[in-house]
Each structure stands twice: as structure tokens, then as C-alpha cells.
Amino acid sequence: MATVELKQLKKVYNRKVEAVKGIDLTVHDGEFLVLLGPSGCGKTTTMRMIAGLEEITEGEVLIDGVSVGHLPPRKRNVSMIFQNYAIWPHMTVFDNIAYALKIKKMEKSEINTRVKEVAELSGIESLLDRYPDQLSGGQQQRVAVARAIAVQPLVFLMDEPLSNLDAKLRVQMRTDLKEIHRSTGATTVFVTHDQSEAMSLADRIVIMKDGAIIQIGTPDEVYHNSANRFVADFIGTPPTNFLSVLVGDKEEEGYRLKGDHLDFTANHPSLAGFEGKTVLLGVRPENIDVLPEAPIEAICRLIEPQGSHNIILAQIGEQRMKLSVSPDIGLKIDQTFRLRLKSGHYHFFDPETGERLDK
Amino acid sequence: MNLKSMKKKANLATLYIISVAIISSILIPVYFIFSISFLSTREAYQYPLPIFPELRSEIKLENGDRGVLLSIYDKRNDEYETLLDTTDFKKMSTYMRVNLSLNYTPEELEEKSKLLLTQSQVVFKARKDVLHNYKTFFQVTRDAVPALIRSIQIALITILISLSIGGTAGYTLARYRFRGKHTLKFSILFVRMFPGVAIAMPMVIILANMGLYDQPLGLSLVYAIGSIALTTWITTSIFLGIPVELEEAAQVFGATKLRTFINITLPLALPGLAASSMYAFLGAWNETISALILTQFKPTFAVVVYQALYGSTGQVNLTAAGGIAMAIPTLIFTFIIRKYINQMWGDVSV
Amino acid sequence: MSKEQSIKRRNWNQVGPYLLVAPALIYYVFFWIRPVLKIFMFSITDAAGHLSLENFRLVLEDPTFIPAAQNTAIIVIFSVTLEFVAAMALALLINRKFKGSSILLFIAMIPMALAPVALGAMWKTGFTTHGWVNSFLTYIGFLDIGEKIIFLSGESRFKNLLLIILIDAWQVIPSMMIILLAGLQGLPKEMMEASYVFGANRWKTLRKITMPMLRSTIQTAVILRLISALQIWLTIVMLFGFGRVPVLLSRVIYYSEEVPNLANSYQMSSTYSVVIAVIITIVAILYLRVSGAFGRKNGGAKA
Question: Quick one: pLDDT at residue B342?
């Protein structure tokens, strides 16, 4: 297995458009790394540069310490799963999986064994004689996975491989991919724009925006300690709530925070130096408690039942926020209630740069 | 039955009526020329022309004033039509072959007429030689067979040139971004704007200098001018229809660019390429006037047919046979590649 | 080493495309631009070999030039319009899979496949007075027995042109329909359905959704057709000879094949070729401009 290192990797189209702005990244051996970001953030371009499908404008890609930037894809020892599977329609499933092995001039019997092995692992052993047009979308996806495993690459690259599947199949394939990753232990780079997919699959998530890396961290880190407003907003459903508050002077219990219909105290060291300024308070929906004695008054505007919990759209003055609460609380629409932010579970962001204050 | 399903049925009925109308308006002329090519000269002079060519003729031989009287049964008037009264069986045999498309040797006719010694008439059904006009056509026009072979050669070479050069250009236009691409795509159109005939005239000198005047290869080079342009256009559409990921996947899984093209792109493009070769084939096979200008002793089949037909007003059945002989290879070719037409024109744009 | 290879790879991506289109370009320089220049030189050289526009004056003063240009214009305008409208209507009508649609498509390809010579033979045997057309009309009861329509010897220019346009339509409509049908079948069905859902009627959907989406296919079909309609001649010559219904291109062949030994035959046919090429270019550019093909980059939405 292998490590992948990107050093000041840069991609410029037509000498003008900077798709990837010189990023540094190390993918550890055996790691499942997810590149996450909205469309156009450069994540796919980055992956394609690792694969060798996209020319590198500047910088380096190293696999196991060896610079591969000048090598064509076939010499990089990577394998890839494409968004639309890219299964060759004129070959049977068997031939699709065996193609790369045949190019490597592997023994016929060995090819047979290997294909059977990976077909079993991906659950398509009964489909080997079929042509792709006789397969469902999910089955085609499995063929693509099997084909990628069969070559036993140093690095797996997956370019939004689940986005063409329907919701239920997507969740199932997630589990399967994770299991396959555990059994092969292969270094994997996975590109997606779906944050829940990223959260459930990744060892580490790399969040990208406008061709640059915004944050790298475990799912827990990016979720609970989002580096800036963008990440806090991008990760989590529903996303982090932002409230605009004016920082008052430090009192005994902490800083006095005032806003539209808001007036409470918070002890947060990062606020030092922001007295008299407006900051953004970010709080995740599940970190809000509904209590009769709580400091903030809110009106319940909408209720979205999720079974295990309810999502409440609450209005505080002119600002709105979503909170995730137990159905037992029994709120009704237009009812006024009181809420409190769980101490220590909220962060402050600079309203101009969007950066978290205590970073 | 509810209104919706009635409407659906009515729609379907309209569809079939229109289809039948299209089919019959195409097939009726084709059928007629086909049928005329099987008529004997005698039938061809009848009016209205028979819809079905006769396959057998009823012939009657009697004792005439001068010799043996030859008559043929005419279905329309339900009576025998007297054609010839002669003692010369050679003349009778020739007459029957030329006018009735019946092949009897003078000896056979003499044998049959011997029966007239014992009976007043001899009636027999004669099998008509339905391919008579075709045989005549190929016999009369001496060059027909070598010209046919030349035409096939020319068409194949034209396909080869235009697929290799035009196909490469088409692939490039579909797969690469480069400066001047749009201009190039547009200028291809300009090639077709200059009349082919006009190119043919100076080509006489150019080809003569190359030693290719009056040679099949020379004509192929001229025909390729138009068909490279069209092939480039059509193959661009074909290659655009093949997802680029299929090629990228092959490259990731170990194939070189060349191998990717041979293993992945080519097999997937093959049907469309075959179809686009139809246009090269039709262009080369059917073209007449450049061939007229650029050949002298080695005409193409189209030239031979054109010269046989141009100015001949009399023999409609021979004319028809020539036309059909010209058309049959193209029809077979069209039939073979008919399924791929959609792939070919699916994504074409100016 | 690695640096070198990297440069090699980069160079391929920049130079490769040009290398791949080079054969086509070289071919055209050698076999197209060269003869075209030659023809052009001939057209501006008089019989004595001096540069002059004399040939163009001769062409314009050729008593057959005006009728030839008129005939060509009439044929192009009416046949292309008629053919496009009919082909579009038919393509829309049969734009669905039904039993026998593949047979229909094959049959529609027949007229396109037939050689001009074969077509000439077909229509010549058809339109002679005792030909199959009159016979057919008699069989279906349209004509009384013995009654005949005289198609070819009529001196009426209108009748002759009408006949030519109809014959041309017979050959062209099906092949045009095939191109348009291929385009129609490539369109996403949801677009049309969405339009119906939002209450547009068929006509409106056709005009506002289908036609604009089909624009590049239509442009392709029409431009190819315009170019070849401007070069019509063979069927006409086979039916009517060179004199009766002259068209522009038949003048080229007239000078190069029928009277090749006049002092200025070669110049005349060259000049006629240049005139035709100029006319075609102007018409094509006008059409492309009017239809908006220049506004799009790299072939429009599909590219």
C-alpha cells in the first residue's frame, strides 16, 4: 500500500482559470480520504491530476515518495471508479474486470481466479457473462468496483461513484465500499459533494472551495470544530445556525451577548478583544436545549418530524434557526418557547472573514 | 372504449397511413423501373406498360403463306398476335431472342415446326429469359464488366482514404481542444461549396503529372476530396457519442493511448464508421461527371451506364436494366448499414 | 529524465491535435486549394493568356446565363423550402418507435442511395409519353385508356420546373427526414413533456422548444441541401438535354463536355465554376448568418 503526497499542486485552464490553487496534502497509507466540496471547487480536477488524466500545471504528485507527474495514467499504479461507471459496453463483465490483467500479461488461470475473487467480493459472481446493458445501475457500479479492485493498485481513486444511484442503493453501497476498504486496506481517495457520504465513509475529510483546501480533519473534527463559516454551513443536515450578536463587556459569568431578541451571557475565551464588535455565533441544531427557564425566547414556525427526532424551525426576532429536539417536548406551531445553547458547544466566527475566532 | 384510447388508436392509424403513403410513393417508381428491366422489347412497346413482366410466353407456330407463321398469345386482347412469317429459322431465333426475350436455337425451332407436317399448329409455353436485358446491356456495352470492377476498386479506395484521413480529423475534433478548431470545422464546409466538376477539370493536369490520369486511384483521390469533408463531420459526431470516460478508464487500467483507441474507441465507433463509409461509397460509386472528365480508356461503371443511357430514347427496358445494375450495389450496401444511421447523424452540427 | 518526459507529454497535448488533423489539411492544400486556384486563374485569364475580366463579361453576356441563373434560383428556393417543410413534418409524425419503423427507415434511404444515372433512367422511362407514369395513372383510373399526359415535350417553363422540383423532392425528402429524425430522437423527451405540462399546445411546443433545440441539426440538413441543390444538373440534362432547361452547373458541363473545342471553352467552364462557387458561398454564409450559426461557439450547446 501507499501514501500519496500533493505538493503545491496547481491547475490552470486556458492560462486564466485557476481550478486548483496550489494545494498541499498527504494521504496516509491505508487511509480513506474524502475530498469534499461544492461543484467547481477543484476536487475532481485534483483527483484527475493524481490519476494522470489531467495535466499538472505546477507542483508535484508523489505516490510512495516517487514523483509521478510526468507518468501517463497506466504507469501510476492507481485504479479508478468513475461517476458514470465507465464500464466498457462492448465487453462482458468478465472481460471488463480482466482487461487490465490481460494488459499486464497475467497467466490465464491466474486471471480467472482473480476475477472470480473480486466478483465474489463485490457480489457479482453470477453476472460475469453478461454485457453491461443487461445490468442495473447498482450492478454496473459493482462491476466498476470489482474492476478497480482486481488490479490491486497502490491507490484507489473514486470520483463521485455513488451519485448516480438511487437513495437506498447509495446508502447500501456506502456500507459495502467501507467493508471492501477494510478488507483490502487500500489507500483511497474519494471525491464527493455529498457531506453525509463523506462523513460516513471518511477517515479524514478534506474540504475544498474555489480550488483551495479549507479544512482537513476527521469527520468529528470538521463537524464539531469547523474551521470557518463555510465548513460549518456545508457540513451537517440541517447545517449550523448562525446568529449575529454584539459582544458586550466581560462580566462575572462571561461576555454579555446581545442581538435581536437576544440577551445572554457566554463564557468563551475567544471573544477577548471583540468587545463592542458584532460576531457570528454558530451552533449546531442538536446543541440547543428547550427549557422553560432558558434565556432566549423563540417562536416555533415549522416542525419536520424525522422519527427519532424533530427538526424545529424557530424564529428569534428576525433571525431563524433550526433545532433538533426530541419529539417528547411536544411543541406546536406558533407556540412561543424558550431555548438555551448548550454550554461549550457553540463557536464564534468573524463576520467578515468567516474564520472561527478560537482557531 | 374511452376517449383517450380512441385518440391513441386514431393517432396510430394516422401514423400507419402516413408510413404506407411514404413507402408507396418511394416504392412505386422503384418497382416500375425494376419491372420494366425484366420486360421483353415487345412488352416494353405496349401501352400501358404491363405491371408484371411475363415469365412465360405462349407461342404458336402455324403454316403461313411464305413459311412458318410465328404468333404469341396476347393476354390483354385474348388472341394471338402474328409476328413473323419466314422459312429462315435463324432469323426467327434472333427475332425471338431480341424482341421476346426467348432463347431458342434455330435447330430447336426447326424441330418444333416439323410437327406442322402432321398437325395444323404447334403451341408451346416458352420460358422467358427475364435477365435478357441485363445480359444484353453487359454485352452491348463492352466495357461494362471491367468498368464495374474499377468502380468497386475506386469506391473501396475512396472509403479507405476518407476513413483514415477524415476519421482521424473527426476524432481530433471530438476529443481535443485546440486553437483554430472552430475555424477548421467551418472550413470543412467550404470544401463542399466548390462544384466537384470544377475541381475535376484542373485535376486532369494534376493527375496527369502524377501519372494517375485515367487510373482508378486518381479518381479515388478526387472523390476523397468531398468525402473526407463529410466523413470528418460525421465521425466527429460519432466520437462525441462515445463517453470520454470509457477511454480514460482504459488508460487508468494500463492501456496506452494507441491501445485504448484500438481496444475501446474503435470497436465502439465501428458501426458508425461503417455507416459513414456509406456516404463515401455512394459518392464514389454514383459520381458520373468527374469520372467522365478524368477517364479516357478506363471509364467507371457510372460512365458506362451514363453513355449507354444518354440519348437513347427507344429501349426503355434496356435503360431500366442499366439503371438497376447501377443501383443494386448501393441498395445492398445501404441495407447492410441501415441500423447505424442514427448514431451517425445524432450529434452533427454546423 | 522525468522533466524531459514531462515536457514530452505536454508537447503532445499541444502539438498532437495539429499532427492528427495535418493529413486532412495537407490533402486539401494539395487536392483542393491547388485546383481551385487553377480554376480561378483560368477564369481571370483570356484566351491569349492575359489577365482580364473578359471571361466574366462573356459569362454575364451569355444569353443562357440569365435563364440558367433564374432556373437555378427557382429550383433552389422552391425545392429546399418544400423539402424541408415536408421532411420536418414527416420526421415529427414518425418520431416514435413503432412496428415497422426500421423498414420505413430503410425504404426512406433508397432514393438517397440511387445513382443520379439510375434516377435519370427511372424518370426518363417514367415521363416519356408511353412511360410507366402514364401507364400507372391509367391503371389507377386517373387517366382514361388511351389518354396520355405529355410531360417532357411541353414548352411551358413552369411545367418543366415543377417536374424537376417534384423529382428532386422525391429523392431528397426521405434522406432529409432521416437526418432530422436522428436529431429528434436525440432530444430529451422531458423537455417536450414539460412544455405540455405547462399548458403549451403542440404547435407552440414545436416552435418554442423542439425547433430551437433541433437548430443545429436543421442547420446541418439545410446547408448540405442548399449546397447540393445549387449544383443540380444531371437529372435535368437526362430529361431535357442541355438546351431546354438550363441551370448554372449544366453550363459548366456544356462547355467542358458538349462543346469542348471552342477557343474559350475551358475559360468559360472555369468562369462558370467560379461564379457558381461564389454564389454558393454567399448563399451559405447568408443562410448561416440568418439562422444564427455564427453566434454559437464550438457548435453550440452540444459541444
Answer: 57
Which residues of chain C carry a pLDDT beneath 50?
1, 297-303
Q: Is A2 left (phi over 0), alpha (psi -120 to 50) or beta?
A: beta
Q: Would you tell me which CATH number, out of the four given (1.10.3720.10, 3.40.309.10, 2.60.40.1120, 3.40.50.2300), belongs to the domain C44-302?
A: 1.10.3720.10
CA-to-CA dists, residue A252 to A249, A263, B297, angstroms: 10, 15, 113
Last residue of a domain, which of A211, A234, A257? A234
Shared domain check, B115 and B17:
no
Instruction: Mark which residues 34-63 of A lie under 8 Å from C by CB.
Output: 55
Are both A246 and A230 inside the same structural domain? Answer: no
Contacts of B253 in chain A (CB under 8 A): 74, 79, 99-100, 103, 147, 151
Q: What is the pLDDT of residue A324?
A: 92
Contacting residues of B for A147, CB less than 8 Å apart: 253
What tens digit of pLDDT does each residue of B213-224 get? 888 999 999 999
A9 located within any domain: yes
Tell me which residues of chain B, numbers 175 to 234, contact chain C at a CB-CB cutoff of 8 Å.
176-178, 181-182, 184-185, 189-199, 201-203, 205-206, 221-222, 224-225, 228, 232
Residues B110 and B210 in one domain: no
Which of B:242-301 have CB within 8 Å of C? 282, 285-286, 288-289, 292-293
Global confidence as pTM: 0.80
Alpha helices, DSSP H, located in chain B: 3-36, 41-44, 89-100, 106-113, 132-140, 144-161, 167-175, 181-191, 196-210, 216-240, 244-252, 257-260, 266-286, 289-294, 301-309, 316-337, 341-345
Q: ipTM for the complex? A: 0.83
Pairs of residues, one from chain A and one from chain B, whose beta carbons lie less than 8 Å apart: 61
Would residue B42 count as lying in a domain?
no
Residues of the domain holding B30: 3-36
B 303-332 residues with CB < 8 A to A: none
Which residues in chain C touch residue B327, judged by CB atoms under 8 angstroms apart? Answer: 113-115, 118
Residue A196 has pLDDT above 80, yes or no: yes
3-class DSSP state of A241: strand
> Where among A234, A250, A275 does a domain terminate?
A234
Query: A232-280: per-residue pLDDT in tens?
Result: 999 988 999 998 888 888 887 788 888 878 888 887 777 877 888 889 9
Please name the helix (run of DSSP H) or strand (run of DSSP E) that holds residue A257, with its range, or none: strand A255-259
Neighboring chains of B (3 or more beta-carbon pairs < 8 A): A, C
Range of the domain at A247: 241-349
| Distance (Å) from the alpha carbon of C252 to chain B's nearest alpha carbon | 8
Flag if A88 and B259 touch (Cβ within 8 Å). no
Report pLDDT for A28.
Answer: 93
Quick one: B287 and B228 in the same domain? yes
